[in-house]
Amino acid sequence: DAKTTQPPSMDCAEGRAANLPCNHSTISGNEYVYWYRQIHSQGPQYIIHGLKNNETNEMASLIITEDRKSSTLILPHATLRDTAVYYCIVRAFTSGSRLTFGEGTQLTVNP
Amino acid sequence: GAVVSQHPSRVICKSGTSVKIECRSLDFQATTMFWYRQFPKKSLMLMATSNEGSKATYEQGVEKDKFLINHASLTLSTLTVTSAHPEDSSFYICSASRSGAGTEAFFGQGTRLTVV
Predict the structure, then answer these.
(1) N or C: less crowded end of chain A, CB within 10 Å?
(2) Interface touch A103/B1, C-beta < 8 Å
(3) What DSSP assignment string belongs to A11-70?
(4) How far is the alpha carbon of B46 from chain A, nearest alpha carbon, in Å?
(5) Residue A15 distance to chain B (closest CA, Å)
(6) Mutating which of B49, B107, B114 best tests the A interface, going by the most A Cβ atoms within 10 A?
(7) Could you report the average pLDDT of every consecutive run of 10 residues in chain B (116 residues)?
(8) Cβ proximity of B2 and B46 under 8 Å
(9) Measured between alpha carbons, how far is B101 from A93 in angstroms, rounded to an integer?
(10) Residues of chain A contacting residue B94, judged by C-beta atoms under 8 Å apart
């Protein structure tokens, strides 16, 4: 699975949009971009995934650049409960749910 | 979304004893489950892949005799930490997904193991 690079930490004001970047310049054609988050002392939670089109669900939006070498997770109206470590993971569609976690981005939402 | 339940959430045990952690998929069948461990302020590290009806596949550097994995049914995998020592103290997390490629993984709530 391709390696990803994320900033170690970010801050965001409550109510504002949080934009979390991820670089995956070595992504290959059959690899998807997945985002998970982990609130302190809990198991990771699935957020969203995509291949090349932008995706949106009730939690977030995922914007993937046209060359697929980077992506941005957008939390449109961050709340204090969104404070967590966010992991961007790239994996092949056929590799099942075996995930390789990088260091992720610690997002802190401030009041 | 699908639910994966892990039990217990916390356990304290004495050095030399064994501890069993259960991972259940509550509303779907999982032919494959995964076990991770996480040290404080570190990321999750995959330990092993649990395969229903067959032997688990361990990642390099993980002692299979130390961390026994049993996946006896399509909804239950267990991880037993044998002869636990303080350095085994960690946060253990399981995950499972529905059958089929590309499906997202669902994670248990994790088990905090403290060996004293």
Answers:
(1) C
(2) no
(3) EEETTS-EEEEEE-TT--TTEEEEEEEE-TTS--EEEEEESSS-EE-SS-EEEE-TTSSE
(4) 7
(5) 26
(6) B107
(7) 89 97 92 92 93 89 95 92 97 85 82 97
(8) no
(9) 6
(10) 43
**pLDDT computed for residue B20 by the predictor:** 98
- Output B47-54 pairs: Cβ under 8 A, ≥24 positions apart: B49/A98, B50/B77, B50/B94, B52/B77
Q: With beta carbons under 8 A apart, name residues in chain A contacting B109.
A: 42-43
- Predicted confidence (pLDDT) per residue in A8-35, tens digit: 999 999 999 999 999 999 998 888 999 9
Test A43 with B4 for CB contact under 8 angstroms: yes
pLDDT digits (tens, 9 = 90+) for A32-70: 999 999 999 899 999 999 999 899 999 999 999 999 999
pLDDT band at A101 (very low <50, low <70, confident <90, very high): very high
- A vs B, Cβ pairs < 8 A, gives 62
Query: What pLDDT is attached to residue B105?
Result: 83
